Amino acid sequence: MPKITFPRMGESYRAFKMLLNDMGNEVVVPSRPGKHTLNLGVKYAPEFACFPLKILLGTYLETAQAGADTIITTGGVGPCRAGLYAQLHHKILQDLGYEMKMIVFEPPRLHPLNFIHNIRALNKARLSIRSIIAHIKRAWRKVKALDNVEKLSHVIRPREITRRSTTRVYRQALNWIDEAYTINQIEEAEASALTALNKIPQDPTREVLKVGIVGEIYVLLEPASNLEIEETLGNLGVEVERSMFLTGWTRDNAWKETTEGITVKDAAAPYIPELLGGHGRDSIGNTVLYARRGFDGVIQLAPFTCIPEIVARTILPRVSREHNIPFLTFFLDEQTGKAGMTTRLEAFVDLLRRRKQIPQII
Amino acid sequence: MNVKVGIPSALLYFLYFPMWQTFFKELGGVQVITSGKTTKEILDDGVREATADACVPVKLFYGHVLALKDRVDYLFIPRVVCLNCKTVYCPKFLGLPDMIRHSLAGLPPIIDTRMDSRQGYISILKAYCEIGRYFNAGRKTVWKACWKARHVLKRFNNLMQKGLSLPEAMAGLHKPYQEESRATEPSLLFAVLGYPYAIYDSFISAGLLEKLRHLGVRVITTENFHPRLLARQKNCNLSKRLFWTLSDLALKAAHLVFKQGQVDGVIHLTAFGCGPDSVLNKFIELEAKNHRHIPFMTLTIDEHSGEAGITTRLEAFVDMVRRRKEAVHA
User: Fold this and answer.
1) Which residue of B lies nearest to A276 if distances are taken between CA atoms?
2) What CATH number does the domain located at A207-362 have?
C-alpha cells in the first residue's frame, strides 16, 4: 500500500490526515518543520528558491526517510513559481535517489479532469462518489473549526492575565478537534474549544493594539516558518488579525471568487491593477482594508526573493503614507533568528503604542 | 508638435527597442529618447531608489528611468503580460509600471498600456491603438506604424538568427546584411544562457561577452536560435512548461544545445535573487548532469560584482574547457 504524505501548513494537517485515512490510505504525517528539516532543505534546494520550497523539500526528505512514497501537493498556473515546485521537488528528489510519486492538484476550476483523476487515484477504499463528498465535507468542516479556534486565540491572547494560558488551552482544544470524527462531534469540539478560550481570565482594562498580518500564504499559515509571530505579538499585547486562512483562500481559488476576495482586489486596484501571482495584490488590498478599519499597523511577511511580495513591498510605503498606517516587512529565510525578530517587533509595537497616545503629532 | 518619449534602456528594451522605435517614428512628430548605456551613476541611482530585495536588472531599470525622467514628456513602460498567448513575463515585469509610479517622485506621465495576447488575437493591436491615442494618432496611422514596426522586429530577429549578436543586429538593422569574415576563427563555442537584459548590458554583466571574445570563444545566446527549433523542445521533459517567457526560452535553448552537443561549454548568467532563475537554474543544472561531456557553469551577478572576480572565473572555466578539448582530441 502506498504511504502518502503532504505539505504541512499550520494545523490543517489534522483534517487532511482524517480525509486520507477515510479514503483508505496510509498516511505519513510530516513532523513540525524544525532545524533538521531546514538544514536538509537548504542543502539540496536552489540557493535563491523561496523559503517554502526549502522547508517543503526538507519535509519531503524527512518523510521519505520515514517510508513515504507518494506526495500530494498543489500546483498552480503562474506567474508565481510555487506552481512549478511540484516538478522541481520531483526532479531534486529523483536526483537524490528518491523515487516518489507526485499527485499534483491543479486549480479545479481550470483543470476539472485533473481533480477527478487525482481523487480516483487516492480512493483506495473504493468509496462511492457520495461518500467521498461526505468525507470531503467533514474534513472541510474540521479545517473550518481549526481556523475558527485559531482566530479566537489571536483575540484572547493579548488580553490573558496569566501568560501562556491561551496557548495552553489552544493546544488542548486542538486535540479535542483532532479526536472528533463525525460532523456533530466536530461542531461540539469546536463549540467547547471556543467556550474554553472565552473562559480564560482576561484583563478588560488593558489597552490592546490591533495589527493586521499580510503576505505570502505559506509563511502566514505555518508558524514554524514565521517563528510564531502571532504568539510573540499576542504576548506583547497585540491583537492579530491574519489576512489569510486556509478556508478563505481555498474558497477564493478553488471554484469561484468570494465577495471578500473581490473587495480585496478592488482595494488594491489603484496600486496594482494586475494579478502578479502569489499574494502581492492581496497584501496591498488587505493593507488598505486594515487601514480603513482603523487598525494600528500592518506587518508584511514574505519569503526572501518572493517576487510578488517584493513588488508589493515597493508599493507599500506609498499605501502607508496615503492611508496613514505604519507597516513593517519581514523577509524570512533560514537566517532569520527569533531574537532579532522579537526586537524588531517590540520596537514596532512601542512605536504604535506611542503613536496611539499622541496622535496629533503624527 | 514634437513630443519626446523616453524608453529606458533596460529589461525589454533589448528585445523590442527596434520595434518600438519604428512604431513611434511612424506615428509622426514623436521623438524617441533612450537613456543610453548603463553607467556607474545609473546603477548607483537605481540601487538607492529600488527596494533592496529587487534583482539588479530591476534596480538598473530604476536608474535608467531616473536618468530619463527630466528630459522627456512621456515615459514608455508598457505592462507586458503575455505576447505569445502561452507564457507570461516575470511578475516584476507585470508590476513594473506600478513599482515605478509608486516609488519615484516627479515623473512625467507613464504610458503603461497593458499588452496581453491571451485576450484575443487583436488585443496587441488594440494596445498599440491605445498608445497612439496619447499622440492623437488615428487608427490608420497606428496600423501602418504597427505593420512597419513588425517588419523591423522580424528583420532584427532574422539578423540574430543568422548569428549576429544582439548589439550587432541592433546596429546593422538598416544596413544590408553581409557575411562577416573573421580574422581568426575562434577555437571554442560557448552557449551563454540567461536573459538578454543581463547578458547584453555589458556594464552589469561585467563585459562577459567581450571577455569571452578576448579569450577566443565564440558565443551563441538564446536569441540566435530559431523559435521553431526551440518550440520543438516541447516542455523539456516536464509535465508543465515554465510560466515565464524568457525562462521558458532559456530552458528550451539549454535542452537544445545539450542535445545538439556542438558547444564546448554552457554558461548560465543569473542575477542575484532572481526568482524565476532559482527554478530555471536547477532544471538546467540537472539537465547538464545528463550530459557530462559539456561543462556547465553558473555565473551570478549583482550590483557588487567585481570585474576581477568574474574575469578569474571565466579564465579558469575557459582554460579548463580548452584543456579538456585538447585532451579528448589528442
Assistant:
1) B91
2) 3.40.50.11900
Question: Which CATH number does B3-161 carry?
Answer: 3.40.50.11890
- Angstrom CA distances, B289 to A28, A180, B238, B255, B318, stand at 32, 50, 16, 12, 19
Q: What's the CA gap between A8 and A60, in Å, rounded? A: 10
The topology (CATH level 3) of A3-127 is Rossmann fold (3.40.50)
Question: In the predicted model, what is the mean pLDDT of residues A55-62?
Answer: 94
Question: What residue segments make up the domains of chain B, in order of their start?
Answer: 3-161, 186-329
CATH number for the domain whose boundaries are B186-329: 3.40.50.11900
Q: In chain A, what are the domain boundaries?
A: 3-127, 138-204, 207-362
Are the Cβ atoms of B103 and A315 closer than 8 angstroms? yes
Report pLDDT for A169. Answer: 95
pLDDT number for residue B29: 80
Q: pLDDT class for A336, splitting at 50, 70, 90?
A: confident
Are A3-127 and A207-362 the same fold in CATH?
yes
Query: Closest approach of chain A CAs to the CA of B178, in angstroms?
Result: 41
**Interchain pair A87, B91: CB under 8 A:** no
Percent of chain B with pLDDT over 70: 98
The 8-class DSSP code of residue A83 comes to G
When pLDDT is averaged across residues A214-242 and rounded to a whole number, the result is 92
Question: Rounded to an integer, what is the distance from CA B51 to the centroid of its chain?
Answer: 22
* A316 Cα to chain B: minimum distance (Å): 9
| Nearest CB to B53 within list A77, A273, A310 | A310
Decide whether B3-161 matches B186-329 in CATH topology: yes
What's the ipTM?
A: 0.89
Q: Is A249 exposed, middle or buried (0-12, 13-18, 19+ CB in 10 A)?
A: middle
CA B145 vs. chain centroid, Å, equals 23
Question: Distance (Å, rounded) from C-alpha B269 to C-alpha B277?
Answer: 9
